[in-house]
Inverse folding.
């Protein structure tokens, strides 16, 4: 653990203890997290007493599901569920490749994050597989993009009414509800209205998952600290990769020096002839 990761841990402990943070989410999909990235985040979660949720690469990303078991996450989330068939594929893969081998609590959820998904939501909610989910998330940013809105569109009135209607349907089916996608201090009014309607349970920044049971004022302060956590986490990642790159760069310089000392053309003609034969 480097200095920045230690700072991230300190922030995470405060988020869990004081601001309603239940866990951290990371993603093999849009974030492009590596196995090593998730291992480091898992270490922070263990030390802070937080859950780890992992978004996999797609509804039937079986390799990602197996990696999730190795990593010891508490929940996997499938992105871009846009039809009942996609949900069936996700649940089927989970029940075949994950569920039989898990003895600790393990949960599954989905992202509803496009116009097509919203158009299919009633059908998605009707199938039996939907009742096997522990939560449903509306991803506002991708939804806004599918509506040809810019990033600021996530907090517009049109988006609110779409989210309100969708969350109401989800709650009627007894689902826990999550909302992500460009969550910021500018989203507080949007969130507050959904909270008043009792249709939203959790919100997610890029990494931090907040329960809304403590109210909007606590969330407001929590979002500020979440920014500090995410900054420290990313700085820690940059420092870690820079350290690895520095080591490789030194090795590159050493090898280049050896090649030059033995004659600049000692290796290059072979490489050139090999490439010409391809």
């Amino acid at each position: 653990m480097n200095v920045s990761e230690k700072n991230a841990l300190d922030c995470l402990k405060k988020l869990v203890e004081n601001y309603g943070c239940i866990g951290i989410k990371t993603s093999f999909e849009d974030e492009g997290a590596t196995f090593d990235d998730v291992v480091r985040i898992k270490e922070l979660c263990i030390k802070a007493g937080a859950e780890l949720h992992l978004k996999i690469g797609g509804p039937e990303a079986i390799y990602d599901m197996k990696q999730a078991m190795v990593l010891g996450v508490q929940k996997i989330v499938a992105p871009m569920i846009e039809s009942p068939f996609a949900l069936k594929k996700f649940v089927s893969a989970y029940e075949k490749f994950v569920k039989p081998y898990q003895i600790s609590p393990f949960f599954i959820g989905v992202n509803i994050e496009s116009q097509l998904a919203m158009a299919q939501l009633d059908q998605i909610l009707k199938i039996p597989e939907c009742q096997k989910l522990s939560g449903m998330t509306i991803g506002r940013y991708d939804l806004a993009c599918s509506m040809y809105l810019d990033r600021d569109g996530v907090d517009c009135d049109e988006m609110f009414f779409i989210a309100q209607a969708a969350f109401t349907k989800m709650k009627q089916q007894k689902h826990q509800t999550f909302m992500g996608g460009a969550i910021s201090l500018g989203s507080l009014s949007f969130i507050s209205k959904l909270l008043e309607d009792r249709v939203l349970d959790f919100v997610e920044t890029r990494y931090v998952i907040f329960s809304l049971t403590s109210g909007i004022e606590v969330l407001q302060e929590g979002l500020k600290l979440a920014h500090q956590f995410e900054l420290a986490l990313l700085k820690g990642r940059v420092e870690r990769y820079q350290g690895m790159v520095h080591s490789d760069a030194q090795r590159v310089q050493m090898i280049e020096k050896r090649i030059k000392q033995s004659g600049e053309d000692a290796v290059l003609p072979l490489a050139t002839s090999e490439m010409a034969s391809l």
Q: What stands out?
A: The CA atoms of residues 267 and 273 lie 11 Å apart. The domain at 3-239 is CATH 3.20.20.60 (TIM Barrel). Residues 270-278 have pLDDT under 50 and may be disordered. The radius of gyration is 22 Å.
